[in-house]
Amino acid sequence: MNIIDIRSDTVTKPTPAMRKAMAEAEVGDDVYGDDPTINKLEKLGAKMLGKEASVFVPSGTFGNQLALFTWAPRGTEVILGEEAHIVQHEAGAASVIAGVQTRTIPAPDGILTRKALEERLRHRELHFPATSLICLENAHSLGQVVSLKAMDEARAVAKEWKLPIHLDGARIFNAAAALGCEAKDIAARADSVMFCLSKGLCAPVGSLLAGSKAFVEEARMKRKIMGGGMRQAGILAAAGILALTEQVNHLAEDHARAKKMAKDLAKIPGIIIKPKEVEINMVFFAWPAAEKEKTAKKIVDIFAGHGIIINAPEHGVFRFVTHYWIGDSEAQAILAASREAFRSEAAAS
Question: How far apart (Å, rounded) are the C-alpha atoms in residues 243 and 9?
């Protein structure tokens, strides 16, 4: 049975072209700066984001934490949205690696407004730390895309406070496809940007952290401290180059399938979903009955019986994620399983 995995776009496997490129990659010692494939990837990534330089890192979490480690002095405070990946899914690393305090603010749809920022930004005084960095996220890990206008508002506040902005752009190319702009247009609103080569772009490992030459030079030193010097990493970079030159153009197809899936799911009685709110490749929908653990497990098992892997819901909310390996036939199989799973539960309730 061909397994269909829609838990996340992190489950993507490298394309045949990537596997070939990895096998044939020219390599050297990257810590010495001698790996030609790494060097090529870093130049390409920086150019695509309109930055002076970039540095290859093992993962998105590594890249985000490296940015905090580089920008923020120990004992200072980093401002970011309360649902930001850096806060919710990076194991409290900011306190361990950079030694900083994170201060969250409400950020509906991933937007940090001027009002919310100004209520939290602080100068150093006897009883509290100074703000040293503002972090944005686009596309947001909850599936929203933040407009350039909203990013400009945050940028203006940062400029007034003379603060840098770091962008968690793990899915920046998804955001660009959704906004109808180039990734560099989004990246221009931040001083540093981390973006993933994996996820929807299919590379098996790796992210890039981009910014000015001075910032990247310092980040490269901090990367060494964090254990990120990976020697002959050109084998991985070869896949990353194809991620940027070939896979970026497929993201709009993933978005289109997600939007169609949302419309089809909306036709199933009992499912609560707003198809117009699907902006990238993530489909969130509610099934109130699934708040019961027994019911949720039954639904997951029905999908498994069809060879489809899904995550259990959180508070009755499911997330289906389309990606390169979810084509039209896989989308139809997901819809068929959804009709069986949710209608059978409706009949049983």
Answer: 14
pLDDT at 41 over 50: yes
Looking at the predicted structure, is the pLDDT value of residue 329 above 60?
A: yes
What angle do the packed helices 251-265 and 172-179 form, to 10 degrees?
A: 70
d(CA 316, CA 264): 19
For residues 244-257, average pLDDT: 98
Give per-residue pLDDT as tens, 278-304.
999 999 999 998 888 899 999 999 999
Which homologous superfamily does the CATH classification assign to the domain defined by 4-9+250-348? Answer: Aspartate Aminotransferase, domain 1 (3.90.1150.10)
Do residues 323 and 7 lie in contact, with contact meaning Cβ atoms separated by under 8 Å? no
| In this structure, CATH architecture of domain 13-248 | 3-Layer(aba) Sandwich (3.40)
Kindly state the tokens that stand for 251. 């993201």
Q: Could you count the other beta carbons within 10 Å of the beta carbon of residue 203?
A: 26
Q: What is the pLDDT of residue 347?
A: 45
| DSSP conformational letter for 200 | G
Query: Cα dihedral sign for 120, 123, 125, 129?
Result: positive
How much is the pTM? 0.96
* Cβ contact 42:230 at 8 Å: no
